[in-house]
User: Which sequence fits this backbone?
């Protein structure tokens, strides 16, 4: 039985489980204690001191690391505490680039919000020498601007503890402390996997995605180009947050309408390619199982995970499915099948992907992803970049009607939709693998055992006469744990899904940023996944092999899944990567 304690916070009695911090207890009592360095379940180090409280007799203490005790009397809002916090903010601002209007995090910056809340107007109280840093923009995915950094170390903890990558950390001491990569190398010269989780952890504008919006506008405005756009499943589950919709609201129809009004020639759906991926990947899995291929087979749709595997676990490269990720598949099909259908030369077609993922920017530049002799995907923008472009175009998103994707490459099933949530690729694959192996149809297509946000999920699924042992991991830190168990012989599986970001694509590095305060009471992994599972449940067709447009693609162009032509267009290979530039 759980042990509960009672404490008083600003005169409010609150009962919480033993082991709860004062910060968490205050939130339960409806009291917001300000934070900067704190990030739930990731970074609780009491470094910024913004969350200090008076717990009686021991001076001011950091609430994020202070255990609540029975009978404790906590004050969070005394004149002394308010003055202390204001002074701390002014000290932070004294070494901070305050060009807020040009900052990508303006209006969604935790430091900016605290300044408004605590009445810090200009940040010149401690004006003096400021450190000046060169902006690191060598990466195709992530820009680092240490002139904005407040040394909260949230990015460091996320990269190390959550992703098990650890390519950034604090160097030097005192006033010249900064967050750097080892040997002062640029992020692009390190074993960064481009996942962008550091961006979503950052409370300010010290980390942000490489902006591709100008390139996309230039493509749209080039009358010699036929520009096709495709949004990923997870984008529709989060885009609405940028326009005031509650977290977990699906805005598929309005998203399509906005893309069409922005000037794209065709609006296709990456969900279509997710269904196509399942046909290729499911067939590949069946062949490996029945013909003695390398097992466990591991999914390949997450580019952050693929780069992590290539860099940190290259011995598992043979286990990776050879399937391209869905948006790369759709790019290849657009520049071949669609090009022939529409009578357009592939060189005149440009494909823009809207992704929840900053690693997709890196992926689009891989030389091997050019099935027609041209890049499968020409430009990648994130969910945040799309929101910015919609606002820049003056489109009233909330007033848009719901519109449908364009035909030919726009149909999708529920299986394609759930690709955006951890466990979704596995569930979609099992729905179709059952049909491929048995020839029968599943009555109940919901595989609850692979759903949810547990770091590693395991299940044994009966498919005909076969017992298929499966596992799902999300976040590369959890992938490390799973692969280590396989290497040691502790675990044995048939099929594994790995998503590079915690929660899967719904919390990718390019999704709307959620503040640390909001995450105290709301989990974006859970809320955004609800939108995708809701769309899945509402679909008339929920299995990838039921997609009529996918069937037509095979009948008219590809032949059969895993055919020679399918391999030329839809499959790829991987390479072992060094951990840093020599």
Assistant:
């Amino acid at each position: 039985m759980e042990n509960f304690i009672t404490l008083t916070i600003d005169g409010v009695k609150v009962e919480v489980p033993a082991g709860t911090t004062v910060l968490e207890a205050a939130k339960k009592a409806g009291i917001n204690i300000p934070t900067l360095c704190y990030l739930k379940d990731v970074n609780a180090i009491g470094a910024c001191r913004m969350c200090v409280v008076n717990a009686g007799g021991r001076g001011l203490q950091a609430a994020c690391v202070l255990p609540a005790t029975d009978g404790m009397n906590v004050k969070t809002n005394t004149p002394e505490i308010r003055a202390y916090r204001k002074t701390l903010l002014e000290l932070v601002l004294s070494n901070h680039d305050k060009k807020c209007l040009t900052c990508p995090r303006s209006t969604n910056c935790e430091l900016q919000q605290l300044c408004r809340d605590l009445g810090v107007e200009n940040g010149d109280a401690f004006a003096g020498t400021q450190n000046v840093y060169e902006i690191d923009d060598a990466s195709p995915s992530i820009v680092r601007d240490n002139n904005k950094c407040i040394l909260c170390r949230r990015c460091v903890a996320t990269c190390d503890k959550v992703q098990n990558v650890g390519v950034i950390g604090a160097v030097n001491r005192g006033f010249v402390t900064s967050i750097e990569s080892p040997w002062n190398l640029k992020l692009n010269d390190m074993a960064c996997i481009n996942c962008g989780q550091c961006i979503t952890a950052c409370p300010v504008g010290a980390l942000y995605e490489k902006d591709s919006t100008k390139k996309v506008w230039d493509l749209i405005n080039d009358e010699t180009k036929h520009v096709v756009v495709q949004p990923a499943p997870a984008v529709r589950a989060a885009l609405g947050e940028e326009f005031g919709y509650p977290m977990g609201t699906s805005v598929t129809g309005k998203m399509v309408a906005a893309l069409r009004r922005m000037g794209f020639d065709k609006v296709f759906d990456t969900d279509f390619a997710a269904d196509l991926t399942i046909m290729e990947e499911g067939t590949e899995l069946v062949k490996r199982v029945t013909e003695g291929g390398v097992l466990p087979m591991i999914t390949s749709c997450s580019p952050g995970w693929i780069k992590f595997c290539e860099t940190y676990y290259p011995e598992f490269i043979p286990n990776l499915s050879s399937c391209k990720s869905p948006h790369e598949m759709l790019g290849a099909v657009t520049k071949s099948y669609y090009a022939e259908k529409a009578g357009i030369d592939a060189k005149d077609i440009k494909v823009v992907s809207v992704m929840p993922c900053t690693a997709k920017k890196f992926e689009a530049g891989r030389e091997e992803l050019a099935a027609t002799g041209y890049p499968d995907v020409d430009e990648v923008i994130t969910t945040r970049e799309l929101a910015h472009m919609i606002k820049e175009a003056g489109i009233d998103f909330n007033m848009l009607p719901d519109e449908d994707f364009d035909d030919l490459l726009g149909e999708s099933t529920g299986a394609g939709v759930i690709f955006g949530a951890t466990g979704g690729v596995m569930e979609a694959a099992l729905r179709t693998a059952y049909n491929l192996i048995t020839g029968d149809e599943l009555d109940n297509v919901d595989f609850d055992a692979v759903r949810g946000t547990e770091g590693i999920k395991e299940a044994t699924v009966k498919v005909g006469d076969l017992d298929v042992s499966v596992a799902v991991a999300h976040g590369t830190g959890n992938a490390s744990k799973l692969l280590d168990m396989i290497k040691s012989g502790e675990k044995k599986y048939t099929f594994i899904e790995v998503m590079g970001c915690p929660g899967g694509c719904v919390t990718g590095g390019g999704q709307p940023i959620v503040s640390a305060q909001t995450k105290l009471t709301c989990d974006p992994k859970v809320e955004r996944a609800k939108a995708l599972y809701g769309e899945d449940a509402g679909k008339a067709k929920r299995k990838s092999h039921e997609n009529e447009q996918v069937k037509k693609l095979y009948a008219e162009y590809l032949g059969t899944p895993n055919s020679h032509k399918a391999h030329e267009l839809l499959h790829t290979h991987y390479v072992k990567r060094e951990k840093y530039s020599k």
